[in-house]
Design a protein that fits this description.
With 177 residues, this protein is an all-beta fold. The chain has one domain. Helix content is 3%, strand content 39%. A hairpin with a 4-residue loop joins strand 3 and strand 4. Keywords: Hydrolase, Signal.
């Protein structure tokens, strides 16, 4: 596994990071990532049908997750869903209305996740508290079988507005039909 370039705590309190030296993603003639090639994220078991927005990192090293609570975000230089290694998608959960990953913790092993033409099967759903740098680094890899990691915030403290846990879903790529 390659070393983690940045470990971030974004404004939505989702811990994510970016592996150093990950290869570039597919680009068009102008050098812009073709987000259409990614397709959409669909999770039928929890009613998710979301766009995937490629993002960079801020000057502070935080994943530049936007304000959309209906879409998910991926580091533009990271592994694409279906490629070798772990593709990580982060999405908001929202305390004041519907967020794309509000129900992420309801997923169970065996549920299906679709990203573009790639189908994944959920293998693990967990809630974690206080992720260390090494734990976050463990989510990212550009090696091994293609897999998907979905991450969001969980267990919001209504008094402070701080999310106490992260919900992390791991899924393995299913063979093409």
């Amino acid at each position: 596994m390659r070393r983690l370039l940045v470990v971030v705590l974004v404004s939505a309190a989702v811990l994510v990071g970016a592996p150093a030296g990950a290869g570039p993603v597919t680009t068009d003639a102008g050098g812009t990532e073709r987000s259409a090639a990614l397709g959409r994220l669909a999770i039928p078991a929890i009613g998710v049908n979301a766009g995937i927005i490629p993002v960079g990192v801020t000057r502070a090293g935080h994943l530049a997750i936007g304000r959309s609570v209906r879409d998910v975000y991926r580091w533009r230089s990271g592994v694409l869903p279906g490629q070798q290694g772990s593709a990580v998608l982060a999405g908001h959960t929202w305390s004041k209305g519907p967020g794309v990953f509000d129900e992420l913790g309801r997923l169970r092993p065996g549920n299906h996740v679709v990203v573009g033409r790639n189908r994944f099967e959920v293998t693990r759903v967990r809630r974690v508290t206080g992720m260390t740098r090494s734990a976050v680094a463990g989510l990212f890899s550009d090696r091994g079988a293609p897999r998907l990691v979905l991450i969001t915030c969980g267990d919001r403290n209504d008094l402070t507005g701080v999310y106490r846990t992260r919900i992390i879903v791991n899924a393995r790529l299913l063979p093409s039909r």
